[in-house]
Design brief:
Elements: E1 12-13, H1 24-32, H2 34-46, E2 50-51, H3 61-73, E3 77-82, E4 85-90, H4 92-98, H5 102-115
Antiparallel strand pairs: 1-3, 2-4, 3-4
Length: 119
Amino acid sequence: MNVEPAVGENTVDSPFPTFPVAGVQQLLAALADPVRLEMVRRLMNGGGPMVCSALYDGINKSTATHHFTILREAGITERLAIDGHTVLRLRVEPVEAEVPGLLGSIVGKANRELSAPGF
């Protein structure tokens, strides 16, 4: 699977609302779903904003939109318009300020599980 960060990050516009980081229960609930965890894992490993279609496989667009909404409302991600394309960005700094180590720990474990024999 080839997951590429969004390119052409010259023109960043944020016409979309950004939500504050939610409480710990909402954060954990958002990350507990395997589809959303994979989206966050890809964003973290990608190192920057990514086009939405690069963040999921095997689900339809409306289901992906539902998952993106949950991640945004938990304050984990934000939507941006970059060079006319809508992309998602992981909000590492704000989440880390509220719950230090959360994203790194969860994504690190998810990465280890995917690289373990049998996956």
